[in-house]
Amino acid sequence: AGGSQVIFTNPLEIVKIRLQVAGEIAGGAKVRALSVVRELGLFGLYKGARACLLRDVPFSAIYFPMYAHTKAAFADEEGYNHPLTLLAAGAIAGIPAASLVTPADVIKTRLQVVARSGQTTYSGVMDAARKIMAEEGPRAFWKGTVARVFRSSPQFGVTLVTYELLQRMLYVDFGGSRPAGSDVAKAKVDVARVNPDHIGGYQAALPMLNGIETKFGLSLPRFGAPAAVKRQTS
To answer: Residues 6 or more apart from 31 whose CB is under 8 A from it?
Structure first.
């Protein structure tokens, strides 16, 4: 899942970064998204894609199992999750996923941003990792960790709770198993208020009547289908 999304997100990431630092680089000149795309070209839009893979693949590998287990832990005895528990599960899962992949995000950003005059340039993932370690130390790889958590945790919490609720509303039964988390709340029966004399109903009466016939030799009347119905069925 993480690897496939890079195909779509990497071009958007590099354009976003170029627009965010455009004022600093171009001295106030206005930079548009279309001009960035034309300047970079098709292959330029995938600059830093390896670093993006190093970020998004571990993120998905951490996030989705964490979300699934947290959602299951928050579910009630019937397996139902309230929207607030779904939101909490998505937000909690985003904390380790977003924080642990920060080094890859730092490298990706350094590769995709336009270097200013006199600033260090990087030729690839390993080159960027070596230069960042030599010039800034290991702490540089964790810059922006808190900001990433505060962005990704609520972002994916809202995304997953929206997905789960839409799944409940739009689910169509094609004969397969219902996806976990798509169940709606089930009405609970108060067993204490149920009359025990009514439990079983017809299913309990049938063997009792059969027992009366066999034990006491009684012949109870049998009510079959009307004669007209029998002729039609024959």
So the answer is: 18, 19, 22
